[in-house]
Amino acid sequence: MKIRVGTGFDVHQLEEGYDLWLGGIKVPHTKGAVGHSDADVLIHVICDALLGAANLRDIGYHFSDTDPQYKGIDSKKLLHKVCELIKKKGFKIGNIDTVICLQKPKIGHLIPEMQKCLAEVMGIDIDDISIKATTTEKLGFVGKEEGISAYATVLIQG
Question: What angle do CA 137, 127, 88 make, to 5 degrees?
């Protein structure tokens, strides 16, 4: 059996007038993430980590932010497609470990709902998806509430 790991990192600016999507769910907040798609930073890092583990490049290669067909797209659709790509290459997801860096709002209570949503999209067990949330103690662009970042590490098996 072949075992591979991948990592993902993403950042989005936060501004008023946008929705905040994380892990496939809409998070109530006065600011949202700016991006070509729905700017779901958590899904984007998972996509990048999975693609990297399978040596399939990155999310921007498959879903260009200059392609009008992806304007405003629900990132769950991108994640589903990524899962199809790694399956086609002979891999299955072992586990996913993520961190969301966000000063406000507090999102810890939403993690089970995110896990459920992501597990359904990817067709894996909720227990195979770890989501952690942290602030940056008011430091940097995250701490100043100017943006959001996230990290992911995945293990795939083939």
Answer: 105
Burial of 138 (0-12, 13-18, 19+ CB in 10 A): exposed
Q: Where are the domains of the chain?
A: 3-157
Each residue's pLDDT tens digit, 94-150: 999 999 999 999 999 999 999 999 999 999 999 999 999 999 999 999 999 999 999
- For 3-157, CATH gives 3.30.1330.50
SS3 21: strand
**Rounded to the nearest 10 degrees, what angle do helices 41-53 and 111-122 cross at?**
40
d(CA 135, CA 138): 7
Provide CB contacts within 8 A for 11, sequence distance 6+: 41, 141, 147, 148, 149
b/e per residue, 67-92, with b = 16+ CB within 10 A?
A: eeebeeeebbebbbebbebbeeeebe
pTM over 0.90, yes/no: yes
